[in-house]
Each structure stands twice: as structure tokens, then as C-alpha cells.
Amino acid sequence: MKFIDEALAAGNRCLVHCNLGESRSPALGLLYLAHRGLIPNESLPIAECAFMKLYPCYNPKAGMRGFLSQHWEEYTARMSFQAKQELA
To answer: Is the dihedral of CA 22, 25, 26, 28 positive or negative?
Structure first.
């Protein structure tokens, strides 16, 4: 997530991409938006619902969805804490 923040802070755009734009890169985008509090991050299903309004092509493959589901609380808790620290 740091590389996205650094690019944006420098006034640059940041392209996150993968082969089809359905699973890996959108999952990273979802995590970034949740990290920054730009979409709800109370749970993965709530975040995905909000994200799909922004990016309807989101269609995570089983492995990516499983990883997100298994680690969602770990990442959002850590990310939310880091985001709060950066804003302080």
C-alpha cells in the first residue's frame, strides 16, 4: 500500500494491473480503499459490495477470495491502525 501512497503524494497516478483486471489488481485496489477508509471495511462482504459499485468487473478467483477472507481482519486492523498513525 505504501507504494500507492508514495506515488499519489508525489502527484503521480498509480496504475495497478493484472492480466484480466478481475481478481488480483482489483483485490489490491479494494484493500487500498479499505485501508484509506474510502470504502467500508467492517467486513470483506461489505467492502466488496461497496467496491463493486466502483468497479463492477471485480470477480476474484477462489484463491484470491480465500486469501482475502482468511486475512481480512488482520489486514484491515493493521491498515486502519497504520492509516490513523499516518494521519496523526
So the answer is: positive
Classify residue 71: in a domain, yes or no.
Answer: yes
Residue 88 lies in a domain: no
By residue range, what is the domain housing residue 70?
2-8+19-81
Please state, in angstroms and rounded to a whole number, the distance separating the CA atoms of residues 18 and 69.
20
CA atoms 47, 16, 81, 68: torsion sign: positive
Count of structural domains within the chain: 1
Is residue 88 scored above 70 in pLDDT? no
Percentage, residues of the chain above pLDDT 90 = 56
Q: What is the mean pLDDT of the chain?
A: 87
